[in-house]
Design goal:
Elements lengths: L17 H14 L1 H17 L12 E7 L4 H11 L4 E6 L2 H9 L5 E5 L3 H6 L7 E4 L4 H29 L4 H6 L18 H31 L7 H29 L8 H26 L2 H8 L3 H7 L11 H6 L5 H12 L9 H29 L3
Parallel strand pairs: 1-2, 1-3
Antiparallel strand pairs: 3-4
Helix pairs in contact: 1-9, 2-8, 2-9, 3-6, 8-9, 8-10, 8-11, 8-14, 9-10, 10-14, 10-15, 14-15
Length: about 400
């Protein structure tokens, strides 16, 4: 058969308007099991199961060890106060080497060493101290180990000071009040349980919304690209973005309302501002997902690339780690990602009750990103049209 160099005749696709694109996008989403799983089912499952490991909020009965080398009445008091602490579950060890071995085997999270001669030094008003060793690899457990032993030692130390003052002729109430000259009262405002779940889940929820919307949108656009159905007019693209944003907005309302309430997280402090945030955040992410879908051009590539980006994006957002401590390069490029302004803006509105005027920087950053992503989408569309209809 003779080889021909004839090129196929390009036919201009029929572009749909805003509402027809909106409805067609919703139809395609519910007809594609993979996209449906990513856009709707996955974030709902995350809303149920992700907070479960943090359901207890406050860690209690952390296994710890005590080595009593003093064997005095004072050391016995220290052991007794540590044993009744709800934060600690005390085990006795004979030597420090045994306690270290238990720490290395994860049988305990830390231990306290009461040195020999402690009571004698205290009675002689000499310098005296106990040492606490914790596993820094688990910072929540390590915090409980240190804080639990601190309260036990502090209570015993205050009792010793009271007894000394009474022995010198002071009245008991006066001596007790002087153990803390400036009383300290700690009142947690936005995380009343001071739990890790109430700290991390509201922030991660925004990351989940972003990543599932990005991957689902890129998968859908990649499928359209493979079927040569990706081209559309500006109104058509706006309809597509609106449809995808509507789905994500509903999931966001599910998080802000029922999911946070189910796990007893602070929420709804500024409900109007939170909804306004979602109205800007969702189309921003959906537009970025369209850009990535046109860039990847293949359905599977979005999962292959985006699925590994969640943890780095959360880390550079400035929420779990101070942004000022990041490398200069990351401090710059992190503002190209919606979660950078979105996570803090969402937490400030929904958990802290900030007004919209107090988080205008976050709204402005998202608006600029939406405009940037829109221009990139327009550039991809124009470039694709030039290639498609080049004579």
């Amino acid at each position: 058969m003779a080889k021909t160099n004839a090129k196929p005749i390009a036919t201009k696709p029929s572009y749909l308007g805003f509402w027809r694109s909106f409805l067609q996008t919703l139809k395609d989403v519910f007809a594609d099991k993979g996209v449906l799983l990513m856009l709707i089912i996955a974030p709902i499952i995350y809303g149920f199961f992700y907070p479960w490991p943090y359901s207890s909020e406050v860690v209690n009965h952390v296994p710890v060890g005590i080595i009593d080398e003093d064997n005095s009445s004072l050391s016995a008091t220290l052991v007794r106060y540590a044993s009744v602490s709800p934060q600690l579950d005390v085990k006795r060890f004979v030597t420090e080497a045994d306690a270290k071995q238990a720490l290395w085997q994860n049988d305990i999270a830390g231990f306290m060493v009461i040195p020999s001669g402690l009571e004698q030094n205290v009675m002689a008003q000499k310098s005296a101290s106990v040492s606490v060793v914790g596993n820094g690899g688990y910072f929540i457990l390590n915090k409980n180990v240190q804080f639990g032993f601190l309260k036990a030692v502090g209570t015993v130390s205050a009792g010793i000071e009271v007894k000394k003052s009474v022995a010198h002729g002071a009245y008991l109430p006066t001596a007790a009040s002087k153990t803390q000259a400036v009383p300290l009262t700690i009142v947690p405002l936005y995380n009343q349980t001071e739990g890790y779940g109430a700290y991390v889940v509201p922030a991660v929820a925004i990351l989940i919304l972003q990543q599932t919307l990005l991957m689902g949108t890129a998968m859908l656009i990649g499928t359209w690209f493979e079927l040569r159905r990706h081209q559309s007019s500006i109104r058509g693209w706006l309809g597509r973005i609106a449809a995808l944003s509507t789905i994500s907005f509903v999931i966001g309302c599910f998080y802000y309302g029922w999911a946070f309430d189910l796990h007893h997280y602070t929420h709804g402090a500024n409900l109007g501002g939170s909804l306004l945030f979602l109205l800007l955040f969702c189309p921003t992410v959906a537009t970025l997902g369209c850009v990535l879908g046109l860039w990847f051009k293949k359905r599977e590539r979005s999962l292959q690339i985006l699925i590994f980006s969640s943890l780095p994006l959360f880390f550079i957002s400035g929420y779990p780690w101070p942004a000022s401590q990041l490398p200069t390069f990351l401090q710059a490029i992190r503002w190209l990602i919606p979660t950078t302004p979105a996570i803090n803006t969402s937490v400030q509105l929904n958990q802290m009750g900030a007004s919209v005027s107090q988080v205008t920087n976050g709204f402005f950053s998202l608006a600029v990103l939406w405009l940037l992503y829109g221009l990139l989408l327009l550039w991809f569309c124009l470039k694709d049209n030039q290639v498609q209809y080049k004579p």
